[in-house]
Amino acid sequence: MKLLVLGSGGREHALVWKLAQSPHVQQLWCAPGNAGTATECLRATGAKVENLPIAVDELTRLADFAAAQRVDLTVVGPDNPLALGIVDLFQQRGLRIWGPNRRAAQFESSKAFSQDFMLRHGVPTMRSGTFSDPAAARRFCAELGGRCAVKADGLALGKGVLLTTSPAEAERAVDEIMVQQAFGAAGARVVVQELLEGMEISLHALCDGRVAKLFPTAQDHKRALDGDQGLNTGGMGTYSPAPFLTDAELAAVGRAVLDPWLRGCVAEGIDFRGLLYPGVMLTAEGPRVLEFNARFGDPETQVYLTRLESDLVELLSASVDGTLERMEMSWSPHASVCVVMASGGYPGNYVKGLPITGLEAAAALPDTKVFHAGTALQDGRVVTQGGRVLGVTAWGDGLRTARDRAYAAVDRIQFEGAHVRRDIAAKGIGVAAKF
Ligand code: AMP
Ligand code: GLY
Predict the structure, then answer these.
(1) Which of 276, 288, 316, 430 sits in a 20 to 30 Å window from 3, CA-based?
(2) How far is the CA of 212 from the CAs of 65, 154, 207, in angstroms?
(3) How far apart are CA 57 and CA 50, in angstroms?
(4) For 361-409, what is each residue's pLDDT tens digit?
(5) What is this structure's pTM?
């Protein structure tokens, strides 16, 4: 098969790495890819993965390429082409593509859509309201006693969320998003939610429109600094499994979320073929969905795909074809930890183009894979090119081993101003130690 992967982050490097292991793949492009995707080779043929200089929002150019090369399956990594309707366009042109269509992608592209859907179909979530009028948003914040999550309705790269614990703070948040438009047009409407307390986990489920197959648990670290301090980021590190649930509890949480969600999709004629990633808060009152994403998490993908034993091409094909029911997903019992190395200043401003050294020394370590995210090749050297630069991932018997391996690799890699959280997986290791 010929495959095309869209995106350029750590998630896409992990997808490319895993897909390249499939005996089904004869040719693989990544558009636009990064310095890491371009170094992968296909297990079946030994051929190199090729980066393709087309951006993920150049939908027509991507479709033209897929048609000209007779690509058998295009795999969409990030959310923005999904929200732009890339799946609908490819389907109209008879091109096979993996990911939810535009209507189904609204679970991520509109928080208001998701929130209303959850209320309609009894998916466990929190009190919330959607507002286009700042005064009404402020009133609802006051009703919640100022303990709120104030979110820009549109896509804001995971950054358009402000958490507040007092009425004054909540007012300032509404002002920042709606009046000063700190996140641009995404803040024309806001969703105000009750602030939930508990342990947050990531769920992933592969869906084919009728069936949803749940992955094991993972946990992300969204804040920039140790101890969950600092600004929200796209994610500073992940680990899997997240030992806050037994297998039976995970299955129950999965059912509580996915059963009403799937019933709602079928009832409304929403054909979700892709990856549903609910962010879930485990509260004293039970699981509550914080948000839905309509794609693989980044950096959840890095830990999931280093645990997945099944063939990813077969799974994604079944998701496209509506044949998931027959598929088994097999997961390695080992734990996996991904530590993100970010540019100094991220999620604020940062410089690009800084040389990265030590990648080979890190790659020589056992049970370790350095996924590239914001990297590029410049005059034959790997340089920084984005906020999240690398996802240093390692696995082993238990979280502690995986964590120690990941940090051993991190410590071999240098670039100026590199920023790393040092407490990735600490919460999970703390809990595991109690059993
Ligand atoms: P989101 O982009 O909606 O996932 O929000 C970013 C982060 O803010 C989430 O990962 C949570 O850590 C936090 N968050 C979002 N909504 C809430 C909420 N209603 N209560 C508590 N924390 C929240
Ligand atoms: N792990 C955060 C995200 O993918 O949105």
Answers:
(1) 276
(2) 31, 26, 4
(3) 19
(4) 999 999 999 999 999 999 999 999 999 999 999 999 999 999 999 999 9
(5) 0.94
- In angstroms, what CA-CA distances link 229 with 147, 221, 233, 337, 418? 18, 10, 11, 20, 18
CA–CA separation, 421 vs 12, rounded Å? 22
Q: Is the separation of the CB atoms in 180 and 260 below 8 Å? A: no
pLDDT in tens, 109-148: 888 899 899 999 999 999 999 899 999 999 999 999 999 9
Whether residue 158 has pLDDT greater than 60: no
Spacing, Cα 297 to ligand 1 middle (Å):
15
Query: Using CA atoms, how far apart are residues 426 and 431, in angstroms rounded to an integer?
Result: 9
Q: Which residue has the tokens 């999931």?
A: 304
Give the residues across from 157 on adjacent strands: none
Give the binding-site residues of ligand 1, using a 6 Å CB cut-off: 126, 149, 151, 158, 161, 163, 193, 195-196, 200, 222, 232, 279, 290-291
- Asked if residues 273 and 262 have their Cβ atoms less than 8 Å apart, the reply is no
CB 328 within 8 A of CB 310: yes
* Bridge partners for 419 per DSSP: 342
The count of residues in the chain is 435
Beta bridge partners of 340: 391
Report CA torsion sign: 55, 60, 62, 65: negative
| One-character DSSP codes across 257-325 | HHHHHHHHHHHHT---EEEEEEEEEEETTEEEEEEEESS--TTHHHHHHTTB-S-HHHHHHHHHHT-GG
DSSP 406-423: HHHHHTT-B-TT-EE-S-
Query: Look-up: residue for tokens 């080979």?
Result: 360
